[in-house]
Write a structure and sequence with these properties.
Number of strands: 11
Strand content: 15-25%
Distance between the termini: 37 Å
Radius of gyration: 15 Å
Strand order of the largest sheet: 1-3-2-6-7-10-9
Helix content: 25-40%
Number of helices: 8
Structural class: alpha/beta
Order of helices and strands: EEHHEHEEHEHHEHEEEEH
Number of domains: 1
Shape: globular
Largest sheet: 7 strands, mixed
Length: 190
């Protein structure tokens, strides 16, 4: 399923999926961002077949401010990370209400995976290929091929409010298994 929304509050809390993919571009209009927009329908189709939702804002700056600060993404500088795909288990309506009691328990149960596209893609065609690979990996629940964990965003550091991971391409093609996320974060809490 794909959604263009003015506000994250537009999606009812009862509309749940296993994964939510947020398309974040920071308002730039380069070849990678254009490719994301041109292939939104295809991404929505892939999401609908894989228990996921692709979400993009009609007014990008307002939408991204609801998800994260315009200058920082979970405590990381936005300029170095955008455009990106944010993959999470967190329902969109949760981002719209920072005072929701949910955020007190979310740190143990929900996670963010931020994938900076410019680190992996140089052209629009590479964006399309990359996104298909991400959906294939989600569908089969195997390692995200060609990525490795390179940075961790911790809620104990700076402005970060959730645990999260930044994934970047590897030279050797080492992957990161999405199924290991909950255990990784449980170990860090001990």
């Amino acid at each position: 399923m794909g959604l263009f929304v003015h506000s994250l509050k537009e999606l009812p809390i009862t509309a749940e999926r296993s994964y939510y993919l947020y398309l974040l571009n920071g308002g730039w209009a380069g070849p990678l961002e254009r490719s994301i927009e041109q292939n939104y329908h295809a991404m929505s189709d892939m999401a609908s077949r894989n228990d996921a939702i692709v979400i993009q804002g009609c007014e990008r700056w307002h939408f991204q401010n609801e998800v994260f600060s315009w200058h920082h993404l979970n405590g990381e500088e936005a300029e170095t990370l955008l455009p990106a795909i944010l993959l999470t288990t967190i329902h969109p309506s949760r981002f719209a209400n920072e005072s929701d009691p949910y955020w007190q328990t979310a740190k143990q149960s929900d996670h963010l995976v931020l994938i900076p596209l410019k680190d992996h893609c140089n052209t629009g065609d590479e964006v399309v290929t990359f996104i298909r690979k991400v959906f294939e990996d989600i569908k089969s629940k195997k390692a995200l091929i060609d990525f490795q964990v390179v940075g961790e965003m911790s809620p104990n550091r700076g402005k970060a409010f959730l645990d999260g991971l930044v994934l970047r391409p590897t030279f050797m093609g080492v992957g990161f298994d999405l199924k290991t996320l909950p255990e990784l974060f449980r170990r860090k809490k001990r």
